Amino acid sequence: MSRRGRNDAGALTLSYVIAFPAILLVILTVAQASLYYLANNLALTAARQGADAAAAYNSTDGAGRIAALALISQDGSGMLAGAQVAAIRTGTTVSVTVTGHAWSVVPGLPTTISETVQEPVERFVP
Question: By CB neighbour count within 10 A (0-12 exposed, 13-18 middle, 19+ buried), where does 83 fall?
Answer without folding.
Answer: buried
